[in-house]
Amino acid sequence: MQPTEEADVIVVGAGLAGLTATAELIEAGRSVILVEQEGEASLGGQAWWSFGGLFMVNTPEQRRLRVRDSVELAWQDWLGTAGFDRPEDYWPRRWAESYVHFAAGEKRAWLHQMGHRVFPVVGWAERGGYGATGPGNSVPRFHITWGTGPGITAPFEAKVRDGVARGLVRLAFRHRMEELTVSNGVVTGVRGSVLEPTTAVRGAVTSRVPLAEFEFTAGAVVVTTGGIGGDHALVRAAWPKRLGTPPETMLSGVPEHVDGRGITASAAAGGRVINPDRMWHYVEGIRNWNPVWANHGIRILPGPSSLWLDAAGNRLPVPLFPGFDTLGTLEHLRGTGQDYSWFILNKAIIRKEFALSGSEQNPDLTGKSVRDVLGRATAGVPGPVQKFLDHGEDFITAGSVEELVARMNALAKDSTNGAAPVLSAEAIRAELEARDREIANPFSKDSQVTAIRGARSYLGDRLIRTASPHPILDPQDGPLIAVRLSVLTRKTLGGLETDMDSRVLGLDGNPVPGLFAAGEAAGFGGGGMHGYRSLEGTFLGGCLFSGRAAGRAAAR
């Protein structure tokens, strides 16, 4: 056992929520030990890998694009999306309302004064399609960070490193927390193992060989260790019946070390976990042709034009179009009995509508290259997408429907040991031809075609996100493309129940003395401020908001 070290506050987890909490503690002059089981290369956690999207309301960027937004409209959308319906939603709902006001108020200015900037075109994620009070964003609110994930973590990392230089922060990398120490009902610190050093790149599997034990003590502990998305066994165990049976095969949107360790340790110390069955997994996952971690998947951020078919070749029902309702689509597809589905599109659509989630998949935005970003609107297929076309096992190109379907069948058969449904080229051609006939007029009974035209009424979509309506089978826009899609694990929407000061609450509803939680470990605030669904851009924002609250409260 190493000698016990002491600080004012211990923060466990060096992702965005942990960095934000630590930055606030430094601002208050508190000493901090920042505990992280991975190596220094992993500073910034999952936020570093992200696209950098932030949910903000009534911003200058929206107004320049003629988007009329308001806190009232945003709260209407949040309530319709979250679907709060449980007694334990008291604190999540309060967190949600406070967060919407934050997103409509000081969030942009607070980040801006730290040097944060956003891309001028606001994205329109989770478009819903069920009515004014149903789930989804009524207007575009997805503000992309200039610099993507690294751009959002950099200001907070700089503050933390300044704290190190000032002697206020001790960075304890390769320290794996195994339990919270409790004395007379008060959380007093953390205990765990010092793991052997690593030179692994960010996200790669690291050694779990312990070299020594450690114990740190403090007046408060802030847990910001993330969710469970890297452990598929935990995901399946928490999978709710309302979403059908969990997939036998899933891709991982986060590294293996995202395993819920902090949530488990906090529960053992007396914290209450609520809404563990609420989760957020994407249905547009593709296998990374150049993986960093095991089973590494990437999410397609699709425009609205691709034809979406289930594994048997049936078109998905209204309004389950690309980019409209992630969880509704997940629920529908889990009822098909297959773990995959298909996009069918052409080169004209993939050129304009396919973006890939992640900082490494968007070198133009990550590298802050104005020239390269402008090239998205005028060039061919984006470079990262072209690499998936060239090397990705889930991508198929063909000159005819018959060739395309034959290759789709072969891919499905090989990956399911012959258990996949056999697609009919005749039926898929008939579906494509029927859809294409609806393009001939500026109006249509096909809801997806209507949605495409509606999307293009928004300037941002017309410029860089939605292809002009055209027949998919038009040879001049070929070749035809099929993309096999899988479920991609990502976020835990439930977590440790917290009050508005990020204090973890116990089974009796009272705060556990000395224990705070933020980020995904706290369901991004309160134990589940998103409810059942997310409006997108709210995960990073939730880490910022709850991390800031936890840091300020722990400092007090």
Automatic annotation (TrEMBL):
GO molecular function, one term: steroid dehydrogenase activity, acting on the CH-CH group of donors
Organism: Arthrobacter sunyaminii
Keyword line: Flavoprotein, Oxidoreductase
NCBIfam families in UniProt: PRK12834.1
The protein, known as: FAD-binding dehydrogenase
Domain FAD-dependent oxidoreductase 2 FAD-binding: 8-540
